[in-house]
Amino acid sequence: MQQITVLGATGSIGSSTLDVIARHPNEYEVFALTAHSRVNELAQLCRRHRPRYAVVGTAVDARKLQRLLNGQDCEVLYGEQGLNQVASASEVDTVTAAIVGAAGLAPTLAAIRAGKKVLLANKEALVMSGALFMQAVQEHGATLLPIDSEHNAIFQCLPCNYQEGLPQTGVRRLLLTASGGPFRETTLSELAQVTPEQACAHPNWSMGQKISVDSATMMNKGLELIEACWLFAASPGQVDVVVHPQSIIHSLVDYVDGSVLAQLGNPDMRTPIAHALAWPARIDSGVQPLDLYQLARMDFFEPDLEKFVCLRLAREAAEQGGTAPAVLNAANEVAVAGFLGGQAGFLQIAQIVQRTLEQADICAADSLDCVLDADRQAREIASQWLARMS
Ligand code: NAD
Ligand code: MG
Hints:
This protein is an alpha/beta fold. It is 48% helix and 15% strand.
C-alpha cells in the first residue's frame, strides 16, 4: 500500500488526484489531506477518503474541522508546521504538491528533503527556487515527477538517460504546446476590457482561478518554460512554445535525427497524475480514450508576443536567471490577485510584472533566504504599482 499526502486537496489538481487514487483502493491509501480555508469541503473529503491527518490554515479552522469530523479518527493540524509535518512524515511514500503559488514552496521542499516521491503540480515553487530545488532533489534522493501536463508529456517523450544532458542524448529542443487560452483570437484593444469571468473560462481545461488567469495572459506558458529548464536541464533557447488550440498534443521532443515525439490524449489532468502516481507502471485514470476520427484535425500557430507580453517577460527572466524568476512569479501573483479582485485591468497584469522586474534588485539565487527576500521585495513593489493603477 502506497501512502499518499495530497497538499492542496480541495483544489482542481487535488480533486483529480483523489479521483485517480479512489480507482485503485488496493494500491493507494490517503495519509493526509490539506486545504487553506475551505473547511467544509475538506471535511467532506476526509469523510470519503479517511486520511490519518488533515491540515488547514489556522487554529480557528482546525477547531472547526475537528467539530465537523465529529469523532472520526483523523488528527487535525494547522499552518506551515502542519503542512511540513504531513509532507515529510516517515509513513508517507508520495506527496502530491498541488498548493497554488509560493505558499507551496515550504511543504514541497519539506517533502523533497525527506526523500519522498513528489508529484509536482505547484510550478511556482520550482520557478522561484529552481537551482536550490533541483539541488535538494539530488542531495536527498527524492524522485521528482512532473504532473503539469506539458512536462509530464516531455518526460514521457525523453530518452530514459536524459539526465546525462539533452544534446548528449540527441535532443535538439523541447516544444511546449499552449492552447492560447480564452483570448487567443481577442484583439489587443479588446483585451483592455475583459473581465475575470471571461479570463477564467478556459476553452479546454477546468482549473483553479489563478492558473486560469495565467493561461489567459500566457504567463502560465512562461512559468512552464522556466519549469522545463529546471526539470530537464535545458537552456531557455532549447525550449520553444507552439500554440495548439485543441490541447490534444501535450508537448513534444525534437531529436537531432529529425524525429519528433509527442504525447497525445484528451485534456484531462487525471492522465499525467495517473502516469506519475504509478510510474513506471501504467494504471487506469478514468480518462476517455482519444477518438482521432472525432478530433479530425490539429492546428499550430506561433505565439503572439505583442499581445501576450507575460510570455516574453518570463523568457527574459529565464535568460537573466538569479532571482529574476522569483520576482516575476511574486509580481504575477500580486497582479493576478489584483485583477481577480477588480483593482487592475487585464493588461495591467503584464505592466505590473514588467515594472517590478525593472525596479527589483536581481541577485544570485544561492540561498533560500535570498529567494524569499526577492519574493518579499517583489510583492511590495508590485502592490505599490497595483495601488497606483487602481
Ligand atoms: P486551486 O486553486 O484549484 O487549488 C489550490 C489548492 O491550494 C487548494 O486546495 C487550496 O486550499 C490550497 N491553497 C491555496 N492557498 C494556500 C495557502 N496559502 N496555504 C496552503 N494551501 C493553500 O488550484 P489548482 O488549479 O488545483 O492548481 C494547483 C497548482 O497546480 C498550481 O500551482 C497550478 O499552477 C498547478 N497546475 C494546475 C493545473 C490544473 O489543471 N488545475 C494544471 C497544471 C498545473
Ligand atoms: Mg500546464
